[in-house]
Predict the structure of Glycerol-3-phosphate dehydrogenase [NAD(P)+].
Amino acid sequence: ALASARSDTLIWARDPDQALSIGQRHVNPRHLPDIALPPALRATADFGAALAHVLEGPDQADRLIVLGVPMSGLADVCRRLAQALPARVPGSAPVHLLWTCKGISPDTHQWPHQIVAETLPGTAWLRTGVLSGPSFAREVAQGLPVALAVASRDPDTGRAAQAAFHGTQARIYGTRDVMGVEVGGALKNVMAIACGISDGLRLGTNARAALITRGLAEIQRLGVALGGQADTFIGLTGLGDLVLTATGELSRNRQVGVAIGQGRSLDDILAGGMTAEGVRCARAAQALGREHGLDLPITDAVCDVLFGGVAPTQAVAALLARDPRDE
Ligand SMILES: NC(=O)c1ccc[n+]([C@@H]2O[C@H](COP(=O)([O-])OP(=O)(O)OC[C@H]3O[C@@H](n4cnc5c(N)ncnc54)[C@H](O)[C@@H]3O)[C@@H](O)[C@H]2O)c1
Ligand SMILES: O=P(O)(O)OC[C@H](O)CO
């Protein structure tokens, strides 16, 4: 999306073959082999060169770095940045740093913004935020329209993202609610697994709608307890991303759920190395819910099925057998 909006976009890929293919042949053979990437897109495997491109490039007005790695790689890339960033940035304009990952650290239960703050202590010129919302990479790479949100405590970061992404394809909305956006992004993956399980069991569209709606209530309950704003969860990064991921066939989290509902084992499904962030963050979400005394029944059911040896049909029966309550 960035490369179609501006011609000075450079991708850093740690694998030199990937970088060569993206930069020279404009194709990503590993993830999107059938899609032609914008011809102006450049790529490098040299981290220092990529950073210099941002810091020393001609357009100092809106210097933007987007970290497109999964949760498991976020701390690592931030540490690389911390080592490579100069003490004083050339020029006077700030550098804006966005991340796209959706999840919770399985070991420390940290949210992405907490990992960024810990590994990259802020300087006056580095402004940070999360880029999130309903966005299958394949559709974005095909040039189809997409609406996203950038959450940052610094409104300039939202404005920088708007300036960089807005074009014919993307709209970016700004918000200050970093926690709400990150909770929505992480928990919708858990709910997508639940919906996938339900669809794999052929429980019907009524059941799926119930899971989406009650799943959203669960996401909002945790998000508000952690300091997020209630209305964030009916926006792009809450309801929007939940609907996309719980119903869209391109979702890897949903695919995991469908395969489990059809009787496959988690180990077998993940053997090919697929990224399904909901699997890695479900237990952390459950633990955070317990810490805050919250009822998260769908998250509990997903954990029971993924890690507790509970059969999907048993988990559904347990959800239906819960005591009646007000909506
Ligand atoms: N794929 C999507 O449609 C999509 C859309 C929106 C948000 N997201 C979120 O963005 C994040 C990344 O998703 P993805 O699908 O691109 O994941 P991915 O697993 O395909 O990883 C993206 C790239 O990051 C690289 N990477 C991983 N760890 C790294 C490290 N330590 N250093 C350098 N590179 C590293 C991988 O090799 C890969 O090329 C996830 O948290 C996902 O939830 C994905
Ligand atoms: O393929 P998934 O399930 O990781 O979902 C991708 C994006 O998060 C959708 O917004």
Q: What stands out?
A: The radius of gyration is 20 Å.
